[in-house]
Amino acid sequence: MNHPTPAIVAQSAVRRLPRVALLLLCAAYLMPGLLGRGPWKSADISSFGYMAELAQSKDGIAAWFDPLLLGLRPETPALIPYWIGAWAIKIAPSWINPDLAVRIAFALLLAGAFTATWYAVYYLARTYRAQPVAFAFGGEARPTDYARAIADGALLALIASLGLAQLGHETTPALAQLFFASNLFFGVAALPYRRIGPIAALIVGAFGLALSGGPTVGLTLGIGCGVILLLERKRLPSEELPASEPTYSLASIGAVFGITLLAGALAAALGLLEWKIDLPTSHGVLFEVRSQAKLLLWFTWPTWPLAIWTLWRWRRQLTARHVALPLWFAAVPLLATWTTNFSERSLLLGLPAFATLAAFALPTFRRSVAALIDWFTLLFFSGSAIIIWVIWVAMQTGVPAKPAANVAKLAPGFVPQFSLAPFLFALTATLAWAWLVRWRTGRHRAALWKTLVLPAGGAALCWMLVMTLWLPVLDFARSYVPQVNAIAERVGQPGCVSELALGRPHIAALRYHGNFNVQPLIGGPPCPWLLVSPDAIAKLHEIVNLESWRLVGTLRRPTSPGDDLLLYQRLPPVGD
């Protein structure tokens, strides 16, 4: 028997969110941070290092299937993200910096994730069991308009997710995985309505995840989706569904299983299918639970309370595809977060699903709940914007004194400078926020997506302010440029520089920012200079005669003492 739906929505509540406004909001979220900065630590610069190596590689096709950075393989065993970055560097005009070309390519991936999520939710909301209650005398929301309003709400919820802000603007395999997971989500959701588009999305999503460092997640998602679809098909004869309701055919379910298994087989054949389970020890379980719980609470805010509300209000439809599919796409990344060392980057893949569940809470809200969300959002993001402006003013003028002193302490050596263009963008964004608040409290109170307008607009506002007003100090604090410049002042531009136990970020930064020919100390050519990680001092004493080297000094990133490098100079042989 078909259980009643908790959604009660009139046609007046599904008015269309203006496409221009939605596109401008997406652009305001996607574009800040593209200009005015370089690659940041640590995953950002490491990933870029592999992309730059591939773009400059002359070793043929073999190098593309085994990316190396001074003999080191990536921490994330992936291929496609590095290929995308390398291709972006190759095809970009000479006047575009390589790191900017890569950021543009990955911004397009985030835009693709937005698009795939919107269409996935649109098709899920069109299903019969997701539709609102039919009114006795008509006037309920039409299916297509209702689905569009729910999809708009899901996209707004995704933009509002706090965890998307930084990771969604990096050039790492995690963002590529988000794009491919979103395509997989769309492919499964739209399969009853279309064929070519969803099948193509399934292929892109499954094979993309397999070749982007997430083959296990892709396999689990695909097989789980196939099982959910089989169970739904088995249940259909007992449901009172209209004859026009699209359903999954056996061929489409077989395509889900087949594409998933082929992608997994390809990953295994290329050596990318690795076991990454890392469970906490018995002594660290409590600490790990607290840490992961805090991560989940802030990373998925504000979608997780709405998702929980959806699961409660739609509890009699948990097996329906519009609840079961996003629940599965949220549960698998959540499980990966708790069982691997890639916590934040694993949880990133679940944000579209959390946003989907949050969107299905919208038609079940009472007016008082929506008002509470609005007021909390208004206070939170307005307060955050004020803090960002106050600290910027303190950096420029020294008043208030305490914020200025804190910035000077956290970023020693940084000299703030006024830039007109970022200031104008920040001012425009702030005025747009004031207009949005006035609009939200004035008109269009009945729109279904209205509850998520302020969270999405507030997230875009704060990201815009941070990436304009704070960008210079953030770039100084998170970049390796100051440290590389300090090294260049000491060593000039030698033929080569030896290294011992340097991490991938440092190697990539030295090669890109300093244009140094970095070579390994062991097995490499003799170089006049040597850079050593402080952790490798004992190893250095074992493999070289320190009488042949002179310690020049310790070079550190101004904002991170943990990134110290020891610089040694080779001494000429005695008698020369």
The total beta strand count reads 5
Structural class: mainly alpha
Tally of alpha and pi helices: 24
Give the fraction of residues assigned to helices: 55-70%
**Main sheet: strand order:** 2-1-3-5-4
How confident overall, as mean pLDDT?
Answer: 91
Largest sheet: 5 strands, mixed
The H-and-E topology, N to C, reads as HHHHHHHHHHHHHHHHHHHHHHEHEEHEE
Strand content: 5-15%
Distance N to C terminus: 94 Å
Shape: globular
Compute the gyration radius: what is it? Answer: 26 Å
Low-confidence stretches: none
What's this entry about, in short?
This protein is mainly alpha-helical and 576 residues long. Helix content is 59%, strand content 5%.
Task: Kindly describe this structure.
- The protein is mainly alpha-helical and 576 residues long.
- The protein contains 24 helices and five strands.
- The protein has helices at residues 19-30, 43-56, 61-64, 80-91, 98-125, 143-160, 164-167, 173-190, 196-210, 215-235, 250-269, 285-299, 303-313, 321-339, 343-348, 351-359, 367-397, 401-410, 420-442, 453-466, 471-478, 481-491, 504-512, 537-543, and strands at residues 497-500, 518-520, 529-532, 549-557, 560-570.
- Strands 2-1-3-5-4 form a five-stranded mixed beta sheet, covered by helices on one side.
- Helix 23 (504-512) links the parallel strand 1 and strand 2 (518-520).
